[in-house]
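Backbone Fold Data
Goal — fold tokens
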Amino acid sequence: MTRRKEVFDGTYGLRGWVFESPRLATRTPIPLAPMGITGKVRVPLVTLIAAFLALALARVTPVLAAGVVGSGTPASCTEDKLDAALAGGGLVTFNCGLEPVTITLSAEKVITADIGEPTVDGGGLVTLSGGGTVRIFNVNEGGTLEVRNLTIANGHADEGGGIFNLGTLTVVNSTLRGNFGTFGGGIANEGTATVTNSTLTANVVEGAYPVDGAGGGINNNGGTLTVTNSTFTNNTACCGGAGGGINNNGGTLTVTNCTLSENNATSGGGIHNLGRLTLTNCTLSRNFAVSGGGVYSEDGMVTVTDSTFSGNTADVFSGNGGAILIRGGTLTVINGTLSGNTADGSGGAIENRGATVTLINSTLSGNSAGSTATGIANLRDGMLTPVLALTNCTLTGNVPPLCIFNEGALTLTNTVIAGCDSRSGGDTVTDGGHNLIEDATNSCGLINGVNGNIVGVDPLLDPAGLKDNGGPTQTIALQASSPAKDAGDLAVCAAPPVKGVDQRGYARRRTNCSIGAYEYNSSGPPVATSTPTPTATSSATPTATRTTTPTATPTPTASATPSPSVTATATTRPSEDGGGGCTVTPSRSTGTAWWLLLPVAGLLGARRRWRGWG
């Protein structure tokens, strides 16, 4: 068989070689003349291998340009210089001197998929301003933008006064203030957005009839939004708007270690939710709305853990749900404190209209309402029957006369209700047992001495009321002589959803647990069970071992793998905010990427089958 070498346009866009061989065969050679090549081409195999490796590495490791805006003075930091730096992709920094500087833009900066994933780092000194007329950044679908140490101010657009995102957006250590829009004063997200260690303040949305604005701070419209260690304050969804701090419209919203305070809206002063909302270690305080001072959720799924709602208000036109108003869907509150919230209408702490509401290890104290239920109003919504279940909760100090008003299904288990009564509108009340109800006149049908219930007895709570007794939220302790002490259902305390801990995360006693959210005489937080570190053993097959590094900031540890296959290993790395985090990431060999050698292996295999060049 004749063997020949010819140049062709290969998969990688390179003029390569065609070999007629049992392994690689191309029957139609490409002419060499159009490429400026004449005569016979002889290429050493080593050159061929090097070319393949260089091309493979070039494809998987793109080189991004780094741009610097300015040359050391404020005057040198211009919009034109910013445009040039962004066009190169990669890291964009600023050299504008040692004092804060503001660059006012005349046009939004559009981030597309082909400019190399820029990271704009303002160094804590730079403000990009829209001058009240233009948006700052517009991230197109497929585009990626990271903003660090930057202030974004006075942007203006219908969607996302500061930033509009259809792609991937990361905001770290930054401030968005004074931005204006109809949907998302600070940010409008329809892609994937992450906000960490940042502040959103004084952003505003305002609609025009018949369209109401939404998301004073952020509007998450069907996207995925994760907010961590951040503050939302004094943001507004004006004139019929929803979500003073954040509006979540059909998306997934996760908020952790955040504060939302003094935000305003018609519904959902802090957060308005029509999707999936998870709040962990958050404080919502002094937010204001007509409905749902802290949170308003409709047909959504809300989970609140280790969080505090305090001083929120639902006012004007008989506003309902001082802390939370939920209409349809589900609400679960675990280890939460709702205190000092006010509704002009019903539900000083919570108004439930036709939803399923579950409270576990939570405290409701000092809430008030103008008409129905200073604590919780469990109300029908048309044909929807509300479901309310309280397990190991404490309700006290809510303004009399009514802590709970029930028109649906109510279950009380291991719960203290003191200082006000509970009434049922004729619907189902399920006695979960071991409750302590101070008011014997209105106890929802619970009888003293039956099923472990204590009725008509003062629970003797700490007269100091809410205070820091340990844990992420304030609680109300039991006095030493409290009848709630050691009177709880031990099986309930030990099993999910209580899981053997009280509201503080302190261990419930294993002999006799307390009624309510606070465990008297707890031994403290549960002691973590130590797990021996696996050690490497001698065997023919390498065994992956986990190494623990006792440092404040964990670093990645290598995993031994018996073959060069791709495996998922837990790798500990620093998080964006400087703390530790555990992320499952695919790991490969730290040496030369084995998969890059596949083209070479194929060529070597073909070379072994060729008897010569000619």
Q: What stands out?
A: The helical segments are 45-60, 79-87, 490-494, 598-609. The CA atoms of residues 8 and 15 lie 5 Å apart.
